[in-house]
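Exam revision sheet. Question 4 asks you to relate a sequence to its structure. Input first:
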Amino acid sequence: MTLSITKLTPHVGAEIAGVDASREPDGATAKAIVDAWLEHGVIVMRGQDLTDDQQAAFAGLFGTLTERSRPVEKRNEGNRGEPDAYAGYTMLVTNIRKDGKPIGSLPDGDMMFHADLVYREIPSRATILYGIETPKAGGDTLFASLTAAYEALDDETKALVDGKYAKQGYHYGITHREDNEPLQSYVHPLVQVIPETGKKALFASRLMTMSIEGMDEAESDALLARLFDHIEDPRFIYAHKWRPGDLLVWDNRTTVHGRTDFDPKERRLLRRFATTGARPIPA
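Answer key, structure tokens:
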């Protein structure tokens, strides 16, 4: 089958057909996949059948694997008995519980828009998420384009945000913003330049961007609220409705993602890898 790429929305997301992610791609195919990811921010491949090892190998197209950020009690659900070679790198996003305790992370409910590991000095570059069990309805992943959102700003707002820095923070395991001091945080540019494309992207999310450096609290809160609403404008968003066998890869530099609510009585099991990025380049 020949690789084909279909845009999912005008600003973010593309579906790639004709790729078996369980097999190592040739050089031309690998380049086409990565180029599509850079251009569209999110790539979707349906009908995949992947072990841990195969998903990890595919994730390697997008950089060096990052060790997971939080402990997991039991990690081999959906692993079909393969050796746990990637135990330090895999994270399960699931509501499945054993003895009343989640076997993975971020189990229930909706989740505010965010990007992965932005509260560290070196944020994540790519996230590679594979659907194993999905609810009949809900639990959708929403993606918003940070490049399209930046490009749509008026010149006055661009001048206001270019060159600014913002504190990114997170309380582990939460899905909605908390106002108290985060457990881990780092200051990054509010607008970054993507080195592969030269495009500018807002680097902000409702869940994790706490404040803008050099502004008083009221001024910072007002500007961030305006930016969050702008980023989450429906014209910049792709909503992914999961099926088992879906494989998604997104760029944490050019997109933010959130989750819709779902019936907690239905099982949801996704397997996640992430790759290491670099210090964001300020605009």
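Marking note for examiners. The first strand starts at residue 4 and ends at 7.
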